[in-house]
Design goal:
By secondary structure, the chain is mainly alpha-helical. The chain has 16 helices and no strands. The longest helix has 51 residues. The protein has a single domain, classed as MFS general substrate transporter like domains (Growth Hormone, Chain: A). Helix 11 packs antiparallel against helix 12. It is 81% helix and 0% strand.
Length: 409
């Protein structure tokens, strides 16, 4: 199918590279608990709290996303928040003797910037080309998966792989500064593409006006709003919780060597990344509902196997879970954008906020339980959240999606 001239190639490339950097940064969190412990003597609960502040920043960003994009428009909001991300990474690199409170504040700042940028990336592509929403979102999250796959391998070479504690500590400021450089380049590149609706700010103002509280919580919209909010809370909480703690889980609970643990992490996200590309084909074949149901069922079976089987097969079960859920987020997002149409931008800010609230809760709770009980108890947070997601999913899919939940031709 020929790509519409209105979207071109620059916008998908820019948003894809942004998600690539986001994926690399998120994968970095799997290495940070060791750095925090060795360099600052932060325990697992404190590390989980720092990551929770990152998710809290993402949450706050998506609560404010509608007003931010209404004020500045798509292009300025994107570039300015890449500058904020750059500043937060640069400060992390420079403040090498910071306290836990400073790390929390900087992760909050970085999370906020990433939240605005991520919301923009996930909304502008469906708005620019609605008929290709599933395909474009699949490719977008494919790029994020590439970041999750590449990041651990690079970090394993730089901060692990036989490096002493002092050598690893000296490398972290350089890594953080590299992220600052990426952010600066993306901020500059944001000037180039043609963004949807030349008058982005005006369009966003109309969307905000259309989404006033009495409309937002009207009798006809409260059920799908609550349903999708719960779906994002439970799903993102499960995905983020396992993403952050999967490598420490392999090392501490399954006693796998750090190098092999990194390789398994990368293999899991390699499969996760490849599966992202199947979104468009799956939706064409099964529709949005059919794709979500099949992915959720396979993921639940993987979690069941991981919890029942000990040793390396159990560890691989969590990798299978990550691969099984790969298509859920872009499919769910495409469904939500299609369902709300012109109100999608304001609605997605709310839903992403719910998702990052789930991520903040799960990362902190897993760290706290791992310290007070055990990793086997902590990882039950992921299982509980995903089972709740699956239960809510079957309820939400009973909402009539007549005009959109079809096999896309």
């Amino acid at each position: 199918m020929k790509r519409p001239a209105a979207i071109g190639w620059a916008l998908p490339l820019l948003t894809g590279l942004s998600m690539l950097v986001t994926g690399m940064m998120e994968s970095m969190k799997g290495f940070l608990p060791d750095f925090f412990l060795n360099e600052y003597q932060f325990d697992a609960q404190t590390s989980g709290l720092i990551f929770a502040f990152s998710s809290a920043g993402l949450l706050g960003a998506n609560v404010l996303a509608g007003r931010v994009t209404a004020l500045w428009g798509w292009q300025k909001a994107f570039s300015r928040h890449q500058v904020i991300f750059t500043a937060s990474m640069a400060l992390m690199a420079l403040l090498s003797a910071s306290s836990a409170a400073v790390w929390c504040g900087l992760f909050l700042m970085a999370g906020y910037a990433n939240g605005i940028v991520g919301m923009i990336c996930n909304v502008v592509l469906p708005l620019a080309s609605p008929e290709r929403a599933g395909q474009l979102l699949g490719r977008l999250h494919f790029m994020m998966g590439c970041g999750f796959m590449i990041g651990p391998l690079v970090l394993e070479l730089i901060v692990s792989g036989g490096k002493s504690t002092a050598e690893a500590a000296a490398a972290w400021p350089l890594i953080l500064f590299a992220f600052a450089v990426f952010g600066a380049l993306l901020a500059y590149a944001g000037i180039r593409p043609i963004w949807p609706s030349g008058d982005g700010a005006s369009k966003e103002k109309r969307l905000v006006e259309a989404a006033k509280p009495q409309r937002l919580f009207s009798r006809g919209s409260i059920v799908p709003l609550l349903g999708f909010g719960l779906l994002y809370f439970c799903y993102v909480g499960a995905e983020v919780g396992l993403t952050v703690w999967y490598r420490p889980l392999l090392i501490q609970h399954y006693h796998i060597e750090p190098g092999i643990a990194t390789l398994l992490f990368s293999v899991a996200f390699g499969g996760f990344t490849v599966m992202r590309l199947g979104v468009s084909r799956s939706v064409r074949r099964w529709g949005y509902s059919g794709t979500l149901i099949r992915c959720a069922a396979l993921a639940a079976l993987s979690l069941l196997g991981a919890s029942l089987v000990p040793g390396l097969p159990g560890a691989l079960g969590y990798a299978a879970f990550l691969m099984a859920i790969a298509m859920i987020f872009p499919t769910l997002t495409a469904l939500a954008v299609s369902y709300w149409g012109e109100l999608a931008a304001s609605r997605m800010g709310l839903f992403f906020a719910c998702g990052f609230a789930g991520g903040a809760c799960s990362t902190w709770l897993i760290g706290a339980l791992q310290q007070s009980a055990s990793f086997s108890h902590a990882i039950m947070v992921v299982t509980g959240l995903f089972l709740a997601f699956t239960a809510v999913l079957f309820g939400v899919l009973r909402i009539p999606f007549r005009p959109i939940d079809r096999r896309v031709s």
